[in-house]
């Protein structure tokens, strides 16, 4: 594999639509209130993509040097396969972190200018925390991805911070009812991670990567998965009911069909490696949900 293609593979482009779903939802609600600014939106999208690519590089590096990816199912990882050396990946992580922070600084300036010091400082701190969280998922002795905390961080960063934070960039205020769609995005993102961990359960057990799925076991992980997707769908329906103005608001519910199909597939599944295709199904369904939610709300 040529080196350029190896870096593209390490970036894991299929994870990017899910990562920007919360930005789309938060921004769409700001647009509804006539506070949308294209510059802020695109800088937020680029910043989020940067954080996601950084996380993917760090995950590839962390699992690669620990030997976790030597016999994994699904996509080939670049450090484990030797297509990118650990040293090269480390440089890639540093460069990506620098570029992402640079874009984030431009985003902060576009949203708050020089005058609003408090909000600028707050979002700078959040940006730094996001970088640290991306790195600490699998890197280091106390990597939280190895102790079952990955789900919590996915909920916080993909859900709450992504939706509430992006909306705040436009509105400069917290809208607490947005906790409902923010939680929906967070829970559906957790479902994607849960599928990933259910697929990798045997390999993770061997390498002492104690994900929540490893702790729960396959049967309970399935129940957990049903809860994540069911509540994720229900919370957005509740938000739409509270803020009802047209039946078209519920157009996004068409994306619930593949999500229900995923629940059936998970229920019937007996071979974890066969869940790999379900990752894409739930991730793309969440992305389409965010687009339809944003368009019709």
Please explain how this structure is put together.
The protein has 297 residues and is mainly alpha-helical. It has one domain (3-296): Farnesyl Diphosphate Synthase. The protein has helices spanning 3-11, 16-32, 38-66, 78-81, 86-112, 117-136, 150-171, 179-199, 201-206, 212-216, 218-242, 256-268, 276-296. Helix 2 packs antiparallel against helix 3, helix 3 packs parallel to helix 6 and helix 12 packs antiparallel against helix 13.
The stretches of 5 or more residues where confidence is low (pLDDT under 50) are none
CATH architecture: Orthogonal Bundle
The number of strands is: 0
Radius of gyration: 19 Å
What shape does the CA trace take? globular
Order of helices and strands: HHHHHHHHHHHHH
**What is the total domain count?**
1
Relevant terms:
Farnesyl Diphosphate Synthase, single chain, mainly alpha, 297 residues
Compact description:
This protein has 13 helices and no strands. It has 297 residues and is mainly α.
